[in-house]
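Trying the structure run again after the queue cleared.
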Amino acid sequence: MSNHADEFLVDSEEKAFDKDHRRIINYNIGKYDAAVSRGLSKLINLENAKKKGHVIKWRVMENLDKYLPEFESNFQRRGGKVIWANDAEEANREILNIIQKAGAKTVVKSKSMVTEEIQLNEFLEANHIESLETDLGEYIVQLLGQRPYHIVTPAMHLSKEDIAKLFNEKFGTPIDATPEQLTAKARELLRDKYVQADVGITGANFLLADTGSIAITENEGNARLSISFPKIHIAVVGIEKVVPSIADLDLFWPMLSTHGTGQNLTVYNTILSGPRQANETDGPEEMYVVLLDNGRTNLLAQKDQRQGLYCIRCGACLNACPVYKNIGGHTYETTYSGPIGSIITPHLQGMEEFKHLSYASSLCGKCTEVCPVKIDIHKMLLLNRRDSVKHQVVTKREEWAWAIWKKGMLSRKMMDFFKGKTKNFFLKTLFKKTWGKLREMPTVADKSFSKEWSERNSLD
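Done. Tokens:
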């Protein structure tokens, strides 16, 4: 078992029995569920919209070599520059080159999971560049020195009392400050940073191939400010985010917002097609898009599992998952947590280290049910499990255990040969520390069902 798997088991147990953590998460996800239920009720044909989104993303993944160059060509036509990055190291190096060439010292960032993936903040800090998160949730977790807890709501694990205490310690605000007062304080602190920053860094929710644009969805306006004031704008985007046409936003924007927060549409939706043009009064002087692979082509090569690249990062599967709701986002020790993280992380970061995430599921299928682009998530989890065995990324002990179990389950004679007492002995001896640590072990009946059935029918 890998170190990540060992840590995952320890952290999961700790979080599952943390009553305060469970209270906060249940409250926040409860509010989310109510909002999303209202939002989804306004969609006329939800199932049809999901199918359409699935087909569009399928077409993109089957023709990624066509759509990405199309985006690049159209974006460059308006003065933008595209950088292709194979991995996190290359992406960080290219971003640093842009910043250093401009003589910049400060960066403002809007919320971006892909920059979390490449650990950009830590990299810039190590190179003496100040990088400030401007999304309120991201700003809060940055102050705490933590990673985002959730794909959409980075500070979901914190109560308003936790945040009030943090602001009291950092900025001297009242310990009983209201959410409105805390937001006002954050706004006061961040406004000057936008004006002073040399570079603005964002992600993008979608790349539009036909117009050579990036589309950004947000609720706070911080992305627009991060783009508008600094002279240089760098967008870091995964290669899977491309869609064929600007017309596809008619589907994807409402589906993303409804499944992400329950809104019909998020407050700010921005389309950017390059740096400031001669006839424009605002916007950056230079604009770069860093197209990041970082293992995505590994997943693309898996015909059965490439569906994982269809994800539009709405976070719906996290909020639906009973495992996530019990163990929380930080336990996964990955950028992308919950069900979607469990299916893509083993391919992005290595099956050997992260195969355990594909086992962190009850396979209830709720994640698949709520996905706005119909990714068959629970099937992907099973396929990852299959591949971990197929490529022998399992211990010999595990391999032998399942081989014996399979042989026994396929033989009625062998199952009946071992009586209930023998089976109970093995259960209590071999599985007490794992299955039976926090629950009573089941008791196997003395006779099997088939034995009872045959005996009763013979009496008749």
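Residues 32 and 370 are 13 Å apart (CA to CA). Worth checking whether this holds up in the mutant runs.
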